[in-house]
Specification:
With 537 residues, the protein is α+β, with helices and mostly antiparallel strands. It has 4 domains: 89 residues, Jelly Rolls (Sandwich), CATH 2.60.120.380; 193 residues, Rossmann fold (3-Layer(aba) Sandwich), CATH 3.40.50.410; 110 residues, Macroglobulin (MG2) domain (Immunoglobulin-like, Sandwich), CATH 2.60.40; 102 residues, Immunoglobulin-like. Helix content is 19%, strand content 37%. Strands 4-3-2-5-6-7 form a 6-stranded mixed sheet, with helices on both faces. Strands 1, 28, 29, 31 and 32 form a 5-stranded antiparallel sheet that branches. Strands 8-14-10-11 form a 4-stranded antiparallel sheet. A hairpin with a 2-residue loop joins strand 17 and strand 18. Helix 2 packs antiparallel against helix 3, helix 2 packs parallel to helix 7 and helix 4 packs parallel to helix 5.
């Protein structure tokens, strides 16, 4: 039997690529739905293998660029790799992306040589186009990424540089245009014909990049494919859902439904396209099979567009004034008496009950004394599972029972942590001394020992003592709150015929007619002088 002298005791009684796609954008009923077009990609990476790379690319920038591109493709996309010097050859056929194939493709990329004598990227572009025209899927977006450090320099037996450039402009570029194949070029050396590469890309609807260093190259790749995403997303048959974000908002949280095989993107008021693959300091993105949560720090004022929702009826919202509110269920917090701590989200003054948050948000708290320098006296986690102190499952209110052992001044620090944001709240509060004390005596004498008379005893009893605050209550009632430890089931046993003027009571433990392992708490109810009904433990 464990004893607690404060009114409670225990007894025993027996980077970028998924958004290089075209999406169907939904609204909440404001726009008419239209057909979704393909989100798959068929791409060819063309890699320079000329000998000059030993000098111009000693750090292997071209390998990093190509590998970065491949790592951001998703299942359903396909990619091939072509290397070229004086001639071109396919080293990886058009291959569907999977975890296994990504590793194999990356390995092949790092085996691209650097011993070629010439640079003839026209031959590589011809080979890439023929491959996409022959094996590319009709409904896919086709594209070529050309990575080179040099100028057009074909084998003299083939043609002069001028002739190959003329053929490129007059013959090959028009064929790319007819086939709707986008070309993106990456030049990473001062020796490269940057103007030629840029003009090829722009003529097909792509973009040319020049980046002399590895870091600049990676940043430029993210930028250029953001441009590609924008060109795909702004087709006339798209459905768009827009949210206006006011000036001065410090954080916008987008909560969006999604399909398991689909991708969502955000388009800023300025037209920049953001996906979960983009690495940005101001955007944090969390994705699970049925929804995504995106947090944007210091968002730009204006209309933000969401693209890629499953249907016009799909859930989508943005929260711009999200905060967490914490409160104690009881206005009085008494030492050694459990009290329910509750927390929930609010958007301004309106409560937010989103099942999506229940799945990903973790509420943790600390209770720290403020009347002395101290570490937390208690730490824990709230839940919304309908157990361990929480009343209703998935109602958006997270809660847990808290017991603070000592009276004093305290501070509650509560944090709601999600993968994309953290909200904090602090509250100072007082813990009061208990006013109802419970103890137990094993045996009580019924009569004093006297001459020739035996000493009579009765069984164990609860001793309930009241502080003046509890003893001053009118129309006083006494009951025992009994919690079965194994099941958590709570029973109440009311004590009959309570003396309204007594400050101490003795009640036989036989009032509890169940067998088992219990927690027992004495509870006094009554009216104050102001006729307020209170319940003290």
């Amino acid at each position: 039997m464990d004893l607690n002298l404060s009114g409670f005791l225990r007894i025993c009684i027996h980077f970028f690529f998924a958004a290089l796609t075209a999406f169907c954008i939904c609204t909440s009923g404001e726009a008419e739905p239209s057909k979704r077009f393909s989100s798959s990609i068929d791409a060819v990476i063309i890699m320079d293998a000329s000998g000059s790379l030993r000098i111009t690319d000693p750090e292997g920038v071209r390998y990093k660029a190509a590998e970065s591109f491949v790592s951001r493709l998703r299942e359903g996309d396909r990619v091939a790799v072509v290397e070229f010097a004086e001639a071109a050859r396919i080293i990886v056929p058009l291959t569907e992306i999977s975890q296994k194939s990504q590793r194999e493709i990356s390995g092949a990329i790092y085996r691209v040589g650097d011993d070629g004598e010439y640079t003839d990227f026209l031959s590589a572009m011809e080979l890439a186009r023929e491959l996409l025209e022959k094996e590319g899927r009709e409904d896919s977006q086709k594209m070529v990424v050309l990575i080179s450090d040099g100028k057009m320099d074909p084998h003299p037996a083939t043609a002069s540089p001028e002739k190959r450039i003329s053929e490129l402009y007059a013959q090959e570029v028009p064929l790319y245009q007819q086939a709707n194949i986008l070309v993106y070029t990456v030049a990473f050396s001062d020796l490269a014909d940057k103007d030629l590469l840029r003009e090829i890309a722009e003529a097909t609807g792509g973009e040319g990049i020049y980046s002399p260093t590895s870091d600049e190259l990676m940043n430029s790749i993210r930028e250029v494919f953001s441009s590609l995403r924008a060109s795909l997303l702004h087709r006339k048959d798209n459905i768009e859902k827009k949210f206006y974000v006011d000036d001065g908002v410090s954080e916008a949280v987008f909560v969006l439904a999604r399909e398991e095989d689909g991708d969502l993107v955000l388009i800023t008021p300025g037209g920049e396209v953001i996906s979960k693959y983009d690495i940005r300091d101001d955007v944090r993105w969390y994705r699970v099979p049925k929804f995504e949560i995106i947090t944007v720090t210091d968002p730009e004022e204006g209309d933000w567009t969401v693209s890629g929702l499953p249907s016009p009826e799909s859930f989508a919202t943005v929260l711009t004034h999200l905060k967490v509110i914490a409160e104690w269920e009881s206005g009085r917090i008494t030492a050694n008496v459990p009290v329910l701590l509750k927390a929930s989200f609010f958007e301004g003054r309106k409560p937010v009950a989103l099942p999506e948050f229940t799945e990903i948000v973790k509420y943790v708290y600390q209770i720290i004394p403020t009347d002395k320098v101290s570490t937390p006296v208690q730490e824990g986690e709230l839940n919304d599972y309908g157990k361990d102190g929480d009343n209703v499952e998935n109602d958006g209110i997270f809660s847990s029972e808290v017991v603070i052992k000592s009276p004093g001044s305290y501070k509650l620090l509560l944090m709601a942590k999600s993968p994309t944001f953290t909200k904090k709240v602090e509250k100072n509060f007082e813990v009061l001394p208990p006013v109802v004390h419970l103890s137990i005596k094993k045996n009580l004498a019924e009569s004093r020992h006297s001459e020739g008379k035996p000493h009579h005893k009765r069984g164990p009893a609860f001793i309930v003592s009241l502080d003046p605050e509890a003893a001053s209550l009118r129309k006083r009632e006494l009951l025992f709150e009994v919690t079965e430890r194994e099941t958590g089931k709570v029973y109440e046993y009311e004590v009959p015929h309570v003396n309204p003027k007594a400050a101490q009571y003795s009640v036989s433990t036989s009032i509890i007619d169940e067998e088992g392992d219990f927690e027992v708490r004495a509870v006094v109810t009554g009216r104050t002088r102001l006729r307020k009904i209170v319940r003290l433990k």
